[in-house]
Amino acid sequence: MRRWYGLDDVPADWGRSVVTIGVFDGVHRGHQTIVGRAAELARRLGLPVVVITFDPHPDEVVRPGSHPPMLSSPKRRTELLAGLGVDAVMVLPFTLELSRMSPDDFVQSVLVERLHAARVVVGENFRFGHKARGDVALLAELGDKYDFTAEGVPLVANDQTISSTVIRELLAAGDVEGAGAALGRPHRVEGVVVRGHQRGRALGFPTANLETLPYTAIPGDGVYAGWLECFPVNRGADTGAGSASETRWPAAISIGTNPTFDGVERSVEAYALDRDDLDLYGEHVAVDFAVRIRDHLKFDSIEALVAEMRRDVDRARQITARSSA
Questions:
Q1: Which of 54-68, 240-254, 296-310 has the least mean pLDDT?
Q2: Which pLDDT band holds residue 157 (cuts at 50, 70, 90)?
Q3: Do 144 and 229 fall within a single domain?
Q4: Domain range holding 228?
Q5: 3-state SS string over the chain?
Q6: Are residues 137 and 195 in the same domain?
Q7: Residue 302 confidence (pLDDT)
Q8: Same domain, 193 and 116
């Protein structure tokens, strides 16, 4: 699959294509419906599928400080779109200049001159151009002008409307199962492992403390079952323990301020079940969330905390043993 960053990356000899456009944050099941429709048209016409997505989020450019929590990083978004069988993903830098383009100028400079669109598929609520003046109806009118057809597709899967906003709300409430059902896979949080207070190691449960990516949609405080995956950057495929190819483990995940220790900084920590030999400092890792186990609690003693942590680990082991991600 081709990956382009900006219009200048598109090959000069690129021919006609089927194009779909959107932020596609999370590439949730509604987005998958849109991309699937574009792929269907592309197969029928014998043309490649191009997905246009944006970075940064348009909200942050148009209304600074309003960047929503992100369900996926731009890199992860590209990987997910590639998994849907598209031929090219173009990450279009969203700038003030781009936001001020008229709908006609956007269509002409992006869809016509660069991508030679034959068909354009978007969500039925798609808006574009300066002050979001363009909608699906206007896109179709411009298609008549520039020789392509356009259609809006409902963000629906199995008769259920899917919304990135609703998924963010589910995550904020700690409902990772509901969010995962809408996404079509477990919600993922990524980051680099940094040194924390190392209390988990002292208690017998060494955790990977994540420095998360900016604007990450982090689930509400609590303890979760899921998986910890490492994408080694410092030692090739070697994680410092076990098989060199073993980079994914069932995990118990804690999000919160460690109230038993009167903590104030919110953290995301993951304990790879039954592993106390992993050295992941400095590595890029991902945490996938399966099920919320419990709320974050303040315990009266360290002994009570450790006893509860053992129960958390047992529950996480049972949950991940019967789940897949």
A1: 240-254
A2: confident
A3: no
A4: 176-321
A5: CEEEECHHHCCCCCCCEEEEECCCCCCCHHHHHHHHHHHHHHHHHCCCEEEEEEECCHHHHHCCCCCCCECCCHHHHHHHHHCCCCCEEEEEECCHHHHCCCHHHHHHHHHHCCCCEEEEEEECCCCECHHHCECHHHHHHHHHHHCCEEEEECCEECCEECCHHHHHHHHHCCCHHHHHHHHCCCEEEEEEEECCCCHHHHCCCCCEEEEECCCECCCCCEEEEEEEEEECCCCCCCCCCCCCCCCEEEEEEEEECCHHHCCCCCEEEEEECCCCCCCCCCCEEEEEEEEEEECCCCCCCHHHHHHHHHHHHHHHHHHHHCCCC
A6: no
A7: 82
A8: no
